[in-house]
Write a structure and sequence with these properties.
This protein has 218 residues and is of the alpha+beta class. Helix content is 27%, strand content 23%. The protein has an 8-stranded antiparallel beta sheet, with helices on one face. The mean pLDDT is 89.
């Protein structure tokens, strides 16, 4: 098997009037290449205009459905309310496979209207959702910015529609050099954090333990 790097893409998500913040996804192109390709190109917006007359692009679209402790849904760039959306292959495409499971928060999965009705709508899980296994195609996961997803999840809603607009202000593919750089800089950050603590490891771990105890009580 080829160990090609899994593609990564990003959303700059704007909640209300706050400054946009980056959420980065890793796509499981090795397991579901077609589904990953669809999402990646809808992030890049490089496939022109779809049958709807709208650009095949997530940019400017919104998260129209958010259910706390369940999921955040978006990707309807044609109608914006969950009735629309379109894939790069034509309106709908088949369920590729159900090899990947909804095992955790931050899984990226296709929304659908029953078997073989994948378009552009997707959701990000807020917890493990095993009841969706075998019904929705999991094709990626959040690797950076899960705190932004949690902020979205906490928004007030009316009939699952967030009362504050949640917009994909920009989106695209993370270039491979950027991915390598991010890995390097996070390793460097970890190193620097460890050095700049200025307290012995023992003191640090004692403090951490105390904090943890407090947390457990909640």
């Amino acid at each position: 098997a080829m160990s090609r790097r899994r593609p990564q893409c990003y959303f700059d998500i704007k909640i209300g009037s706050k400054r946009s913040q980056k959420v980065v996804f890793e796509l499981f192109a090795d397991v579901v290449p077609k589904t990953a390709k669809n999402f990646l190109h809808l992030c890049k917006g490089d496939k022109g205009v779809g049958a709807s007359g709208k650009q095949l692009h997530y940019k400017g679209s919104s998260f129209h459905r958010i259910i706390r402790n369940f999921m955040c849904q978006g990707g309807d760039f044609t109608m914006g309310d969950g009735r629309g959306g379109e894939s790069i292959f034509g309106e709908k495409f088949r369920d590729e496979n159900f090899k990947l499971m909804h095992t955790d928060a931050g899984m990226l999965s296709m929304a659908n209207a029953g078997p073989n009705t994948n378009g552009s709508q997707f959701f990000i899980t807020c917890r493990a959702t095993p009841h969706l296994n075998g019904k929705h195609v999991v094709f990626g996961r959040v690797i950076k910015g899960m705190d932004i997803v949690r902020a979205m999840e906490a928004l007030p809603t009316d009939r699952d529609k967030p009362l504050v607009p949640v917009l994909v202000e920009d989106c695209g593919e993370m270039p491979l050099e950027k991915i390598a750089e991010a890995t390097k800089s996070s390793l460097k950050r970890n190193r620097e954090d460890n050095e700049s603590d200025g307290e012995s490891d023992e003191e640090g771990s004692k403090k951490k333990k105390k904090k943890k105890k407090k947390k457990d009580k909640k």
